[in-house]
Amino acid sequence: MTLVDELAAVVGAVGVVPADNTDQYLNDWTAKYDGPALAVVRPSSTDEVARVVRMCHENGIAVVPQGGNTGLCGGATPLAADHPEARDCIVLSLSRMNTIESINNARATISTEAGVTVQALQEAAAAEGLLFAPDWGARGTAQIGGGISTNAGGLNVLRWGGMREQILGLEVVLPDGRIFDGMRSLRKDSTGFDAKQLFVGTEGTLGIVTRAVFKLHPLPKEHLTAFVALPDLDALMPLFAHARAESSGLVSAFELMPEEGVQRVLANAPQAQRPLQPPSEWYVLLRLSGGDDVEDTMNHVLASAAEDGMITDAAVAVTTEQDTNLWFIRDEVPPIFTFDERGRRHKFDMAIPIDAVLDFFAEAGRVVDALVPGTLTFGFGHVGDGNLHFNIYPGPDCLVDDYDVKGPELERAIDELTWRFNGTISAEHGVGQAMRPRLADQKSDVELDLMRAVKTAIDPKGIMNPGKVIPA
Question: CATH: 2.40.160.60, 3.40.50.300, 3.40.50.2000, 3.30.465.10. Which one for 100-218?
Answer without folding.
Answer: 3.30.465.10
